């Protein structure tokens, strides 16, 4: 199963603010704001908009997805069919578009400019005998 926006839907304003503060330092390394003439706080500044869009790449998606699993009762969902969520995926990575632990500038640019957010999550199931 592919979940494209599940973590975004589980994110609260409090989560978003916490993510913003955690991500800003890392984000400055990959997508720095250059000093500009005029109003640097202009919310329509292209660099500012790019930074806001890049925030998703640095979100704690594991916590948000676990919140979805608990709220939607995924662990109970498959029981009537004899299915259970796998703890480790074997076909495709859980978070295939996530930046790794120590991403390079190239890794960041490939993820950011692809339009992916890093919150794309796959869940695999297996039959319980």
Summed up:
The protein is mainly α. It is 45% helix and 8% strand. It has helices spanning 6-10, 13-30, 46-54, 61-72, 74-77, 105-114, and strands spanning 2-3, 83-85, 121-122, 125-127.
Compute the number of strand runs.
4
Q: State the end-to-end distance.
A: 21 Å
The DSSP helix count reads 6
Fraction in helix = 40-55%
Please describe the structure with a list of short key phrases separated by commas or semicolons.
single chain, 129 residues, two-stranded antiparallel sheet, 6 helices, 4 strands, 45% helix, elongated
Give an overview of the whole structure.
The chain has 129 residues and is mostly helical. 45% of the residues lie in helices and 8% in strands. It has helices spanning 6-10, 13-30, 46-54, 61-72, 74-77, 105-114, and strands spanning 2-3, 83-85, 121-122, 125-127. It has a two-stranded antiparallel ribbon with strand order 1-3.
Topology diagram in text:
Blueprint: E1 2-3, H1 6-10, H2 13-30, H3 46-54, H4 61-72, H5 74-77, E2 83-85, H6 105-114, E3 121-122, E4 125-127
Antiparallel strand pairs: 1-3, 2-4
């Amino acid at each position: 199963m592919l979940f494209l926006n599940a973590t975004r839907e589980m994110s609260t304003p409090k989560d978003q603010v916490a993510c913003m503060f955690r991500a800003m330092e890392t984000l400055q390394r990959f997508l720095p704001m250059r000093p500009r003439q005029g109003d640097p706080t202009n919310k329509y500044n292209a660099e500012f908009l790019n930074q806001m869009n890049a925030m998703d790449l640095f979100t704690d998606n594991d916590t948000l997805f676990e919140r979805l699993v608990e709220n939607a009762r995924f662990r109970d969902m498959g029981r009537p069919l004899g299915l259970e969520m796998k703890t480790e995926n074997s076909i495709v990575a859980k978070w295939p578009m996530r930046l790794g632990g120590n991403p390079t500038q190239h890794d960041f640019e490939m993820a950011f400019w692809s339009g992916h957010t890093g919150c794309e999550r796959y869940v695999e199931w297996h039959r319980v005998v």
